[in-house]
Amino acid sequence: MNKPDKNVRRAAVSALRAWSKGHVYADSLIERHSERNHLSSKDRAFLQAILMAVLRHRSLLDHWIGRFRKGKLDSEVRDILRVGFCQLLILHIPDHAAINETVNCARKPVRGLINAVLRKAATSRARLLREMGELDPVTLYSHPGWLFKRWKKTYGKDMAIALMDWNNQPAETFYRPNLLSPPPEGAPEPENTREAISSSYYYITDPSTARAPEMLAPKPGETVLDACAAPGGKAIHMAGLMENKGLLVCTDSNEKRLPRLEENLTRCQVEIAEMHTHDWLEKAPPKWLNHFDAILLDVPCSNTGVLRRRVDARWRIQLSDITDLVELQSNILKNAIPCLKPGGRLVYSTCSIDAEENSKLVQRVAQAHPHLLLSETHQNLPFVDQSDGAFAALLLDQREM
């Protein structure tokens, strides 16, 4: 039997406490705390709604809390208040449930404080919502100040605000038909994620993820490398483009991610893949040198194009991380390029919208390797393309075959 609904709030507070320690991503916390509290599907969805809304609107929630409670707050008390304010002002949960059940999450010595603050917020709701238009963009849209400043410099203030607003909207779920096992003609899309995952007809991925595989255009019979393959969305699409003919070598630096990769490829009827553990910060095995007709490098990045989906990433990334990532990305490229056959092609891709990781990096790489031609680039921008942000660049090997 499911535990009482109030455990959803307790689970949300516990998840926020765990998240604040920096070791676990929000998606994993939802699964962990749902299982730990034996939540029903309905309560799990409510837990997800609370946790994601708190992370999306953290600065705004803290601003509201500061209106009624000045000075320093115990970190657990602040998380409880964030959960309460989120229900009252973001999710519009009825006052009695939002206040009473949230107060019950707290230790007895602080229940009076939390009750008083939440009741003041409830009676002031109209004024708080009316005053939102007067807030600065960083507070209103709950993004790090350095990130807004960087985007404003690159895209202008209006576009930077549009991007932050986009990131605060719940992400849509997209079902891509599997080219190797297309759905029957006229069949409706799956009604939910679970149904899609159990079927070989679809896999879940944003439209922007198709750009890099289609730019690479792997052909039937070719030998192709997907160098950072897990969890497998791009590999599935490439196997479809190859009509399950040839060889698709899928590697990942983390051996623990390979079982999920294999499961996804098997479910989608990919028959041409072989999987290996390899860290592309290291040189390639000799057998892979001058070996591949086409290489896809979907490298680790800042995730600045997918902050709508990876809600907590905005609070994890620091400005200094971009410099470190550019060095990592450059080293991955350096080690992958020797694996191209003469006349081969390589696509470098990220889910970033930062030029340092994207256009500037591939331009430097092309200049440093005279046999490579930077043939094409594409930057997907959420506020323009209405899908996740992503970058892809096509490099052509000009050596004679």
Descriptive notes:
- This protein is 48% helix and 14% strand.
- With 401 residues, it is α/β, with parallel strands linked by helices.
- It has two domains: 6-135, N-utilizing Substance Protein B Homolog, Chain A; 175-397, Rossmann fold (3-Layer(aba) Sandwich), CATH 3.40.50.150.
- Strands 5-4-3-6-7-9-8 form a seven-stranded mixed sheet, sandwiched between helices.
- Strand 3 (223-226), helix 14 and strand 4 form a beta-alpha-beta unit.
- Helix 3 (41-56) crosses helix 5 (75-90).
- It starts with 5 loop residues before the first helix and ends with a strand.
Helix-strand makeup class? alpha/beta
CATH architecture of the largest domain: 3-Layer(aba) Sandwich
- Distance linking N and C termini: 67 Å
Instruction: Output the CATH topology of the largest domain.
Output: Rossmann fold
- Element-level helix/strand string: HHHHHHHHHHHEHEHEHEHEEHHEHEHE
The coarse silhouette is elongated
Unreliable residue runs = 1-5
CATH class of the largest domain: Alpha Beta
Task: List the strand order in the largest sheet.
Answer: 5-4-3-6-7-9-8
Largest β sheet strand count, sense and barrel closure: 7 strands, mixed
CATH homologous group name of the largest domain:
Vaccinia Virus protein VP39
The radius of gyration over CA amounts to 24 Å
In DSSP terms (H or I, runs of 4 or more residues), the helix count works out at 19
Helix content: 40-55%
Strand content is: 5-15%
The overall pLDDT, averaged over residues, is: 93
Number of domains: 2
The tally of strands reads 9
